[in-house]
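Sat 14:20. Reprocessing the chain from the morning session after the first attempt stalled halfway. Input below, unchanged.
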Amino acid sequence: MTKIIFIEPDGKEKMVEAENGLSLLEVAHSNDIDLEGACEGSLACSTCHIIVEKDFFNNLPEPTEEEEDMLDLAFGLTHTSRLGCQIIINEELEGMKVKIPGGTRNMSVE
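Finished this time. Tokens:
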């Protein structure tokens, strides 16, 4: 298990114990954290967009071209933005903080 800290749009922090091997999106959903994930992790939307703490961002695997394409559609994109469905939990992410943006952009319903 790995401790991950989610920062909600209102600034409240919630620390959870995340099972290694799950995606950050799956961890959020299993802990009642409001991270949309409209495509259920199939890399077809940007609604699980999160902002990763800089120290951890540089240690993540590079995003795929498909993830980068979806990130281009994300609401509030930053230099440390990633999709939660593409980050797989492992012990190296212990203590990672991820911020949930204040909105999403779901192209399938807009």
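The first strand starts at residue 2 and ends at 7.
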